[in-house]
């Protein structure tokens, strides 16, 4: 009979536990607070395989907190805005401090020009000889006036400082003004009343050369603010001579950058032995002047008007036009001296109507030089005495040029232009001969004579026209 051992036979409870699936995996061992390992003991008996319960699924993430992210953004934006406000206030304070420093240490305008004695500066007035001219678009205006002796060897007018700009006018004196002096009125138009303490219009003198004049002096604030804007207007009243002869001024000069120059018609009233007008970035407009020697200079603006010289005239510009009517006077027969004209420009055209005159209505010698670049030139001779000798040189680049000669012209001519053939437009005139010595694609040469005169006569004069990449034209 077999004996059955019931000790090793599993009980029903053990069979039920063996048929159940293993418990889910909970966690890996972690370090205890003392640095040693900490074990998680399962109450289900022996360790089970690390298998996730398929019914449990992946662990869920904590939900995002949208309201917290918006709060952080608003906080960052508020901090940035606060920093911007503080920075703006700080920079404004620095700018104000610098501006105040400049004004506290401003250039008061009393420093003399080189070679001049200390200027004499009168106080500004709210009216000019009992009148209060309009403020010219500004809320405030002030005035000052000076009398300069007529017999000074030189009359000099200058401006200095970053705030100095406006206009200077030379006019015939009114009958009620002092006829024995040149009266100079200066008006200043401005926004801020405190600015008046920083600008001056002063009488300037150079005793060793007997120079008399007026200077405008302003601070060297840069860049000026809106409150620093102002405008000057200087009016120079020149008396007319009581006799039939014009008033003679020995030396008249301006050195006034950023001042537009306007000269009334002083022809027959005032004669300048020496005249110099100098400015920049402002126009020069002359209704009529007559001078023995004259130099007119500006830039980035125009030179216009009517000019007469008995010796030498130079008009110089850049980046602006020259549109002038010029009369060149010469003594004529027996006078070896030439009356000369120079028209110099760059990036601006030259257009001039020319009158060649002679005291004897015959002969006369003249020299004209006209040079520009990237702009055309046009010279039109409407008057010239018989048997006169003219030397003309005109040149440009990348633009056409032309010269229209008076019928009395006699002499050589030479025309040159690259890439375009020069042109001679000849009008038939009785007694005149036009001959060509050379004609090619880029150059034309020849001469003009009257009534079969000997060639030694036409060798005294000559016309030379030149351009590049455009045509030059000579009209005879």
UniProtKB/TrEMBL annotation:
The chain crosses the membrane at residues 73-93. Keywords: Membrane, Transmembrane, Transmembrane helix. Residues 1-68, 414-437 are annotated as: Disordered. Residues 29-46 have a biased composition (Polar residues). This is Uncharacterized protein.
């Amino acid at each position: 009979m077999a004996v059955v051992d019931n000790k090793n036979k599993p009980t029903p409870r053990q069979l039920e536990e063996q048929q159940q699936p293993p418990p889910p995996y909970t966690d890996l061992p972690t370090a205890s607070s003392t640095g040693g390992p900490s074990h998680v003991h399962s109450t289900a008996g022996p360790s089970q395989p690390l298998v996730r319960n398929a019914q449990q699924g992946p662990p869920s993430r904590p939900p995002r907190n949208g309201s917290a992210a918006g709060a952080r953004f608003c906080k960052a934006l508020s901090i940035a805005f606060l920093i911007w406000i503080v920075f703006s206030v700080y920079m404004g304070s620095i700018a104000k401090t610098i501006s105040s420093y400049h004004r506290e240490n401003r250039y008061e305008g009393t420093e003399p020009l080189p070679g001049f004695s200390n200027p004499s500066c009168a106080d500004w007035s709210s009216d000019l000889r009992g009148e209060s001219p309009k403020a010219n678009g500004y809320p405030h205006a002030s005035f000052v006036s000076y009398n300069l002796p007529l017999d000074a060897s030189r009359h000099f007018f200058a401006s200095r400082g970053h705030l100095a700009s406006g206009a200077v006018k030379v006019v015939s004196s009114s009958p009620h003004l002092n006829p024995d002096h040149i009266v100079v009125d200066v008006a200043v138009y401005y926004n801020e009343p405190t600015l008046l303490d920083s600008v001056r219009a002063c009488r300037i003198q150079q005793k060793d050369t007997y120079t008399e004049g007026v200077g405008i002096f302003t601070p060297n604030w840069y860049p000026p603010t809106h409150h620093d804007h102002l405008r000057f207007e200087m009016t120079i009243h020149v008396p007319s001579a009581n006799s039939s002869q014009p008033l003679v001024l020995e030396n008249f000069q301006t050195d006034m950058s950023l001042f537009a120059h306007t000269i009334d018609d002083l022809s027959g009233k005032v004669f300048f032995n020496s005249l110099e007008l100098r400015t920049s970035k402002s126009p020069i407009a002359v209704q009529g002047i007559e001078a023995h020697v004259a130099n007119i200079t500006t830039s980035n603006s125009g030179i216009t008007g009517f000019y007469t010289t008995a010796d030498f005239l130079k008009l110089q510009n850049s980046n602006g036009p020259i549109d002038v009517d010029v009369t060149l006077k010469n003594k004529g027969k027996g006078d070896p001296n030439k009356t000369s004209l120079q028209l110099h420009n760059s990036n601006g055209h030259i257009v001039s109507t020319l009158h060649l005159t002679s005291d004897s209505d015959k002969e006369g010698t003249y020299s004209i030089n006209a040079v520009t670049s990237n702009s055309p030139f046009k010279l039109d001779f409407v008057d010239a005495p018989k048997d006169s000798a003219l030397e003309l040189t005109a040149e440009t680049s990348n633009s056409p040029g032309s010269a229209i000669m008076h019928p009395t012209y006699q002499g050589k001519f030479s025309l040159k232009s690259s890439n375009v053939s020069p042109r001679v437009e000849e009008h038939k005139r009785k007694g005149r001969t036009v001959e060509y010595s050379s004609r090619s694609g880029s150059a034309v040469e020849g001469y003009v004579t009257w009534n079969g005169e000997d060639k030694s006569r036409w060798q005294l004069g000559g016309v030379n026209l030149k351009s590049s990449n455009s045509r030059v034209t000579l009209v005879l």
